[in-house]
Amino acid sequence: MSATMNVIKLPVAKLVVRQPQALQDPDWVRWGLIAIAISFISLFICLPLALVIFQAFSKGLAAYGSAITNPDTLAAIRLTLLTALITVPLNTVFGVAAAWAITRFEFKGKSLLTTLIDLPFSVSPVISGLIFVLLFGAEGWFGDWLIKHDIKIIFAVPGIVLATLFITFPFVARQLIPLMQEMGHQEEEAALSLGASGWKTFWAVTIPNIKWALLYGVLLCNARAMGEFGAVSVVSGHIRGLTNTLPLHVEVNYNEYNIVGAFASASILAALAVVTLVLKTALERKQDNR
Fold it and tell me: Which of 223, 271, 229, 230 is nearest to 246 (CA)?
Protein backbone atom coordinates (compact mmCIF):
# COMPACT_ATOMS: atom_id res chain seq x y z
CA MET A 1 0.00 0.00 0.00
CA SER A 2 1.27 3.39 -0.86
CA ALA A 3 2.36 5.56 2.06
CA THR A 4 0.33 8.30 0.66
CA MET A 5 -3.28 7.34 0.57
CA ASN A 6 -5.47 8.73 -2.10
CA VAL A 7 -8.26 10.80 -0.75
CA ILE A 8 -11.54 9.84 -2.28
CA LYS A 9 -13.66 12.86 -2.79
CA LEU A 10 -17.34 12.25 -2.41
CA PRO A 11 -19.99 14.69 -3.49
CA VAL A 12 -21.19 16.66 -0.53
CA ALA A 13 -24.91 17.13 -0.34
CA LYS A 14 -25.98 20.67 0.16
CA LEU A 15 -27.57 21.32 3.52
CA VAL A 16 -30.90 22.96 3.06
CA VAL A 17 -31.98 25.01 6.02
CA ARG A 18 -35.68 25.48 6.10
CA GLN A 19 -36.96 28.71 7.52
CA PRO A 20 -39.65 28.51 10.17
CA GLN A 21 -43.14 28.57 8.80
CA ALA A 22 -43.78 32.03 10.31
CA LEU A 23 -40.96 33.47 8.21
CA GLN A 24 -42.49 32.04 5.05
CA ASP A 25 -45.72 33.98 5.46
CA PRO A 26 -46.49 36.54 2.78
CA ASP A 27 -45.14 40.02 3.32
CA TRP A 28 -48.62 41.49 3.66
CA VAL A 29 -49.31 39.21 6.64
CA ARG A 30 -46.15 40.24 8.48
CA TRP A 31 -46.56 43.93 7.75
CA GLY A 32 -50.23 43.74 8.66
CA LEU A 33 -49.45 42.23 12.07
CA ILE A 34 -46.75 44.84 12.66
CA ALA A 35 -49.17 47.61 11.71
CA ILE A 36 -51.80 46.26 14.12
CA ALA A 37 -49.26 46.10 16.98
CA ILE A 38 -48.02 49.63 16.30
CA SER A 39 -51.60 50.92 16.06
CA PHE A 40 -52.52 49.45 19.44
CA ILE A 41 -49.36 50.82 21.07
CA SER A 42 -49.96 54.24 19.56
CA LEU A 43 -53.65 54.30 20.51
CA PHE A 44 -53.44 52.95 24.05
CA ILE A 45 -49.96 54.06 25.21
CA CYS A 46 -48.39 56.83 23.13
CA LEU A 47 -51.56 58.86 22.55
CA PRO A 48 -52.62 58.95 26.24
CA LEU A 49 -49.08 59.93 27.28
CA ALA A 50 -48.99 62.68 24.67
CA LEU A 51 -52.42 63.90 25.83
CA VAL A 52 -51.22 64.06 29.45
CA ILE A 53 -48.22 66.18 28.49
CA PHE A 54 -50.31 68.40 26.21
CA GLN A 55 -52.97 69.08 28.86
CA ALA A 56 -50.35 69.63 31.57
CA PHE A 57 -48.74 72.44 29.55
CA SER A 58 -51.96 73.67 27.90
CA LYS A 59 -51.90 76.93 29.88
CA GLY A 60 -48.18 77.49 29.73
CA LEU A 61 -45.09 76.64 31.67
CA ALA A 62 -45.94 79.05 34.49
CA ALA A 63 -49.27 77.36 35.15
CA TYR A 64 -47.59 73.97 35.10
CA GLY A 65 -44.93 75.08 37.57
CA SER A 66 -47.59 76.60 39.82
CA ALA A 67 -49.55 73.35 39.82
CA ILE A 68 -46.48 71.28 40.66
CA THR A 69 -45.37 73.58 43.48
CA ASN A 70 -48.84 73.77 45.01
CA PRO A 71 -48.62 72.79 48.72
CA ASP A 72 -51.18 70.00 48.29
CA THR A 73 -49.27 68.60 45.31
CA LEU A 74 -45.99 68.68 47.22
CA ALA A 75 -47.67 66.97 50.18
CA ALA A 76 -49.01 64.26 47.84
CA ILE A 77 -45.54 63.76 46.36
CA ARG A 78 -43.96 63.50 49.82
CA LEU A 79 -46.55 60.97 50.97
CA THR A 80 -46.11 58.91 47.80
CA LEU A 81 -42.34 58.84 48.24
CA LEU A 82 -42.66 58.03 51.96
CA THR A 83 -44.99 55.12 51.20
CA ALA A 84 -42.59 53.75 48.59
CA LEU A 85 -39.59 54.19 50.89
CA ILE A 86 -41.32 52.09 53.56
CA THR A 87 -42.99 49.41 51.45
CA VAL A 88 -40.26 48.65 48.91
CA PRO A 89 -37.50 47.69 51.42
CA LEU A 90 -39.97 45.63 53.47
CA ASN A 91 -41.23 43.80 50.39
CA THR A 92 -37.65 43.27 49.23
CA VAL A 93 -36.75 41.55 52.50
CA PHE A 94 -39.96 39.51 52.38
CA GLY A 95 -39.45 38.56 48.73
CA VAL A 96 -35.89 37.32 49.28
CA ALA A 97 -36.86 35.41 52.44
CA ALA A 98 -39.92 33.84 50.81
CA ALA A 99 -38.02 32.86 47.66
CA TRP A 100 -35.20 31.38 49.77
CA ALA A 101 -37.62 29.37 51.91
CA ILE A 102 -39.66 28.07 48.97
CA THR A 103 -36.71 27.11 46.76
CA ARG A 104 -34.27 25.81 49.37
CA PHE A 105 -36.41 24.02 51.98
CA GLU A 106 -39.21 21.49 52.19
CA PHE A 107 -41.81 22.19 54.87
CA LYS A 108 -45.49 21.79 55.59
CA GLY A 109 -47.58 24.57 54.10
CA LYS A 110 -45.09 25.32 51.31
CA SER A 111 -47.77 25.15 48.61
CA LEU A 112 -50.07 27.30 50.75
CA LEU A 113 -47.35 29.95 51.10
CA THR A 114 -46.82 29.94 47.33
CA THR A 115 -50.55 30.39 46.80
CA LEU A 116 -50.82 33.22 49.33
CA ILE A 117 -48.01 35.12 47.61
CA ASP A 118 -50.22 35.32 44.52
CA LEU A 119 -53.27 36.44 46.50
CA PRO A 120 -52.96 40.19 45.74
CA PHE A 121 -52.97 39.37 42.02
CA SER A 122 -56.40 37.74 42.31
CA VAL A 123 -58.09 40.09 44.81
CA SER A 124 -59.37 43.47 43.72
CA PRO A 125 -57.37 46.33 45.31
CA VAL A 126 -60.66 47.92 46.42
CA ILE A 127 -61.60 44.71 48.25
CA SER A 128 -58.20 44.55 49.93
CA GLY A 129 -58.62 48.15 51.11
CA LEU A 130 -62.08 47.31 52.43
CA ILE A 131 -60.61 44.40 54.39
CA PHE A 132 -58.28 46.79 56.23
CA VAL A 133 -61.25 49.06 57.00
CA LEU A 134 -63.14 46.09 58.45
CA LEU A 135 -60.12 45.18 60.56
CA PHE A 136 -58.84 48.55 61.75
CA GLY A 137 -61.72 50.95 61.20
CA ALA A 138 -63.78 52.48 64.01
CA GLU A 139 -66.37 49.69 63.60
CA GLY A 140 -63.81 47.02 62.78
CA TRP A 141 -62.54 44.07 64.78
CA PHE A 142 -59.73 46.04 66.39
CA GLY A 143 -61.48 49.41 66.26
CA ASP A 144 -62.31 49.72 69.95
CA TRP A 145 -58.81 48.72 71.06
CA LEU A 146 -57.19 51.17 68.65
CA ILE A 147 -59.45 54.01 69.78
CA LYS A 148 -58.72 53.31 73.46
CA HIS A 149 -54.97 53.47 72.78
CA ASP A 150 -55.27 56.50 70.49
CA ILE A 151 -53.84 54.62 67.50
CA LYS A 152 -55.10 55.68 64.10
CA ILE A 153 -54.56 53.41 61.12
CA ILE A 154 -57.48 53.97 58.76
CA PHE A 155 -57.62 57.46 57.20
CA ALA A 156 -53.97 57.92 58.17
CA VAL A 157 -50.52 57.12 56.84
CA PRO A 158 -50.27 53.65 58.51
CA GLY A 159 -53.37 52.48 56.63
CA ILE A 160 -51.93 53.70 53.33
CA VAL A 161 -48.67 51.87 54.02
CA LEU A 162 -50.47 48.65 54.99
CA ALA A 163 -52.66 48.71 51.89
CA THR A 164 -49.67 49.35 49.65
CA LEU A 165 -47.68 46.60 51.33
CA PHE A 166 -50.44 44.09 50.64
CA ILE A 167 -50.78 45.08 47.00
CA THR A 168 -47.04 45.04 46.24
CA PHE A 169 -45.59 42.17 48.24
CA PRO A 170 -45.74 39.52 45.43
CA PHE A 171 -43.52 41.39 42.96
CA VAL A 172 -40.05 40.66 44.35
CA ALA A 173 -40.85 37.09 45.39
CA ARG A 174 -42.41 36.27 42.03
CA GLN A 175 -39.29 37.44 40.18
CA LEU A 176 -36.92 35.44 42.39
CA ILE A 177 -38.71 32.12 42.86
CA PRO A 178 -38.52 30.85 39.24
CA LEU A 179 -34.90 31.99 38.88
CA MET A 180 -33.75 30.37 42.12
CA GLN A 181 -35.56 27.15 41.23
CA GLU A 182 -33.85 27.08 37.85
CA MET A 183 -30.32 27.80 39.06
CA GLY A 184 -30.47 25.15 41.81
CA HIS A 185 -28.31 25.14 44.90
CA GLN A 186 -25.15 23.35 43.77
CA GLU A 187 -22.98 26.48 44.00
CA GLU A 188 -24.24 27.23 47.49
CA GLU A 189 -23.57 23.66 48.63
CA ALA A 190 -20.06 23.87 47.17
CA ALA A 191 -19.40 27.10 49.08
CA LEU A 192 -20.65 25.56 52.33
CA SER A 193 -18.53 22.46 51.79
CA LEU A 194 -15.47 24.71 51.40
CA GLY A 195 -16.11 26.23 54.81
CA ALA A 196 -18.09 29.36 53.98
CA SER A 197 -20.69 30.38 56.51
CA GLY A 198 -24.36 30.73 55.65
CA TRP A 199 -24.22 34.53 55.48
CA LYS A 200 -21.00 34.45 53.46
CA THR A 201 -22.60 32.05 50.99
CA PHE A 202 -25.68 34.23 50.76
CA TRP A 203 -23.77 37.44 50.03
CA ALA A 204 -20.99 35.97 47.87
CA VAL A 205 -22.92 33.34 45.89
CA THR A 206 -26.67 33.80 46.06
CA ILE A 207 -26.96 37.60 45.74
CA PRO A 208 -24.66 37.88 42.70
CA ASN A 209 -26.70 35.18 40.93
CA ILE A 210 -30.06 36.83 41.59
CA LYS A 211 -29.12 40.52 41.60
CA TRP A 212 -30.65 41.42 38.22
CA ALA A 213 -33.93 39.63 38.96
CA LEU A 214 -33.94 41.24 42.41
CA LEU A 215 -33.48 44.72 40.93
CA TYR A 216 -36.21 43.97 38.40
CA GLY A 217 -38.64 42.96 41.15
CA VAL A 218 -37.73 46.02 43.23
CA LEU A 219 -38.36 48.24 40.20
CA LEU A 220 -41.81 46.78 39.57
CA CYS A 221 -42.65 46.93 43.28
CA ASN A 222 -41.66 50.60 43.45
CA ALA A 223 -43.67 51.50 40.34
CA ARG A 224 -46.79 49.81 41.72
CA ALA A 225 -46.32 51.35 45.17
CA MET A 226 -46.14 54.87 43.75
CA GLY A 227 -49.02 54.35 41.35
CA GLU A 228 -51.49 52.37 43.50
CA PHE A 229 -54.97 53.85 43.57
CA GLY A 230 -57.75 51.40 44.50
CA ALA A 231 -56.69 50.10 47.90
CA VAL A 232 -55.20 53.43 48.97
CA SER A 233 -58.38 55.26 47.94
CA VAL A 234 -60.44 53.15 50.35
CA VAL A 235 -58.21 53.57 53.41
CA SER A 236 -56.96 57.14 52.90
CA GLY A 237 -60.09 59.20 53.55
CA HIS A 238 -58.99 61.68 50.82
CA ILE A 239 -57.82 64.25 53.35
CA ARG A 240 -56.24 66.99 51.27
CA GLY A 241 -52.61 67.61 52.14
CA LEU A 242 -52.51 64.71 54.61
CA THR A 243 -53.61 61.37 53.15
CA ASN A 244 -53.77 62.04 49.42
CA THR A 245 -51.08 60.25 47.47
CA LEU A 246 -50.23 61.46 43.98
CA PRO A 247 -52.79 59.26 42.15
CA LEU A 248 -55.52 60.39 44.58
CA HIS A 249 -54.44 64.00 44.13
CA VAL A 250 -54.95 63.61 40.37
CA GLU A 251 -58.51 62.43 40.96
CA VAL A 252 -59.29 65.27 43.38
CA ASN A 253 -58.03 67.93 40.96
CA TYR A 254 -59.90 66.41 38.04
CA ASN A 255 -63.17 66.22 39.98
CA GLU A 256 -62.74 69.91 40.84
CA TYR A 257 -62.17 70.76 37.14
CA ASN A 258 -58.59 71.78 37.83
CA ILE A 259 -57.43 70.29 34.56
CA VAL A 260 -53.90 71.70 34.59
CA GLY A 261 -53.36 70.60 38.20
CA ALA A 262 -54.67 67.09 37.48
CA PHE A 263 -52.58 66.57 34.36
CA ALA A 264 -49.50 68.21 35.89
CA SER A 265 -49.63 65.64 38.69
CA ALA A 266 -50.37 62.91 36.16
CA SER A 267 -47.31 63.94 34.17
CA ILE A 268 -45.13 63.02 37.15
CA LEU A 269 -46.66 59.55 37.20
CA ALA A 270 -46.28 59.33 33.42
CA ALA A 271 -42.60 60.23 33.72
CA LEU A 272 -42.24 57.54 36.38
CA ALA A 273 -43.85 55.03 33.99
CA VAL A 274 -41.45 55.92 31.19
CA VAL A 275 -38.42 55.69 33.49
CA THR A 276 -39.70 52.35 34.79
CA LEU A 277 -40.11 51.06 31.23
CA VAL A 278 -36.56 52.09 30.27
CA LEU A 279 -35.04 50.53 33.39
CA LYS A 280 -37.19 47.42 32.94
CA THR A 281 -35.88 46.97 29.39
CA ALA A 282 -32.29 47.45 30.54
CA LEU A 283 -32.68 44.92 33.35
CA GLU A 284 -34.31 42.40 31.00
CA ARG A 285 -31.29 42.65 28.72
CA LYS A 286 -28.99 42.16 31.68
CA GLN A 287 -30.95 39.05 32.67
CA ASP A 288 -30.85 37.70 29.12
CA ASN A 289 -27.09 38.22 28.95
CA ARG A 290 -26.77 36.56 32.33
Answer: 229
| Separation CA 121–CA 211 (nearest Å) | 24
Q: What string of DSSP letters covers 238-268?
A: --TTTT--HHHHHHHHHHTT-HHHHHHHHHH
**What is the distance between the alpha carbons of residues 62 and 66, in angstroms, rounded to a whole number?**
6
Residue 49 near residue 126, CB atoms below 8 Å: no
For 86-99, the pLDDT digits (tens) are 999 999 999 999 99
The residue among 160, 288, 275 whose CA lies nearest residue 220 is 275
Q: What is the pLDDT of residue 2?
A: 46
* pLDDT mean over 134-149: 89
Alpha-carbon dihedral 203, 208, 212, 217, rounded to 10 degrees: -20
Give the CA angle between residues 73, 75, 77 to the nearest 5°: 70
Mean predicted confidence (pLDDT) in 108-136: 90
- Find out whether 122 and 228 touch, Cβ atoms under 8 Å: no
Q: Which string of DSSP letters, residue by residue, matches 65-127? A: HHHHTSHHHHHHHHHHHHHHHHHHHHHHHHHHHHHHHHHH---TTHHHHHHHHTHHHHS-HHH
